[in-house]
Write a structure and sequence with these properties.
This protein is mainly beta. Helix content is 11%, strand content 53%. It has four helices and twelve strands. A hairpin with a 2-residue loop joins strand 9 and strand 10. The longest helix is centred in the middle third of the chain and has 11 residues, at 111-121. The chain is globular.
């Protein structure tokens, strides 16, 4: 590590001046389990290490609707730019001190965005059949991976009360202003910006998951330590930079 690790802040300290992509994330559920940093370290790109809170890192399963994905400042692409997505992610910090996420898999319900993300940034997108059903305060997400590989996942959550002041852990797993990935022999950082998360606590009512094991992670044997819901935020992504 050559620089000081940046603070966990509810809003970015690295604004995106020239967006490469715009989108909105809606109806998100964040489910997290603790993990040993030594276990996940080999799964991260070079020049990054597990980001930790009190010596612990986390594995996240995040399901949501992508809405209005578009190039530059938009507008979003009709039909192809709106779809369900579920990702498996880890938490990273690079040699310059930037905190980010590392995606182990991203299942999405539109083939063209999947192929584009794989070709341009080597992100581990998967084409899947997906659905999100909402009945009052209950949300059910379902995934059936089509390509590459096979895996399924389903979970139901009940949305609770809004969170006035998130805990340190709730900030740690949501206030992320970039991603790290390995593409074309280099570790890349891609920055993002969005308003402060509106968060609710949530209850996980059921979970059937093959996505974590398919991503090279242990299947959870205990209840998650954090389950959160957000109605969503608009997002801007900046261009890639080499770590």
């Amino acid at each position: 590590m050559t620089g000081r690790i940046e603070d966990v802040t509810p809003e970015t300290v690295r604004p995106v001046r020239r967006p490469w992509l715009v989108q909105s994330w809606r109806d998100l559920t964040f489910v997290h389990w603790p993990a040993d940093p030594a276990t996940v370290a080999p799964l991260l790109p070079p020049r990054t290490a597990p980001d930790t809170l009190d010596g612990v890192t986390y594995v996240g399963l995040v399901a949501f609707r992508m809405v209005g994905l578009g190039l530059l400042r938009g507008p979003g692409i009709p039909y192809l730019g709106t779809f369900c997505e579920t990702n498996v992610r880890l938490y990273s910090v690079d040699d310059t001190g930037r905190r980010a996420v590392v995606f182990r898999s991203l299942d999405a319900a539109r083939l063209l965005p999947v192929l584009t993300a794989i070709a341009t940034l080597r992100l581990p997108y998967k084409w899947a059949s997906m659905r999100l059903r909402r009945e009052g305060d209950l949300l059910t997400y379902a995934t059936r991976r089509r390509w590459p590989g096979r895996a399924t996942g389903a979970m139901t959550v009940r949305v609770g009360e809004p969170i006035a002041e998130p805990t340190a852990l709730e900030h740690f797993v949501t206030a992320r202003w970039g991603l790290h990935t390995r593409a074309f022999g280099r570790t890349i950082h891609l920055s993002n910006e969005h308003p402060r998360w509106p968060l609710h606590r949530a209850t996980l009512l059921s979970l059937s998951d093959e996505l974590l094991p398919a991503a090279g992670l242990a299947k959870p044997t205990e209840a998650p330590v954090s389950v959160l819901y957000s109605p969503g935020v608009p997002v801007r992504f900046g261009g890639p930079s080499v770590v």
